[in-house]
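Problem statement: downstream parser choked on a complex file, so we are re-checking the raw output for the zinc ion run. The parser issue turned out to be on our end (a line-ending mismatch), but while we're here, posting the original submission so the record is complete.
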Amino acid sequence: MHELGLTQEVIEIACRKCEGARVRRVVLEVGLLTAVLPDAMLFCFDLCAEGTPLEGAKLDIRQVPGKARCRKCSKDLTLEQPFGNCPCGSLDLEWLSGQELRIVELEVV
Ligand SMILES: [Zn+2]
């Protein structure tokens, strides 16, 4: 389950950013191409946040679609899953975004 490692990373970053203050809410932007399952992540978050300034904090996950460009016809595509093909039939896509995992907001008490 790769959500566990990612969640631990998010918590570490959030802990560093909040400098010991208690965190009430974390808003996380997750690219759909990361294939992160929000439910699994929420579950891991509650577990991993225990004993940290993030204990009891609410995790808000915002999923954002990915963008890719076809290497064959240069068309830009929006992808909602970590695979896809261009309408021209090509599978040779260059992913431009959608693999990000970013803390966009950190609400401290
Ligand atoms: Zn194409």
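For whoever reads this later: The mean pLDDT is 93.
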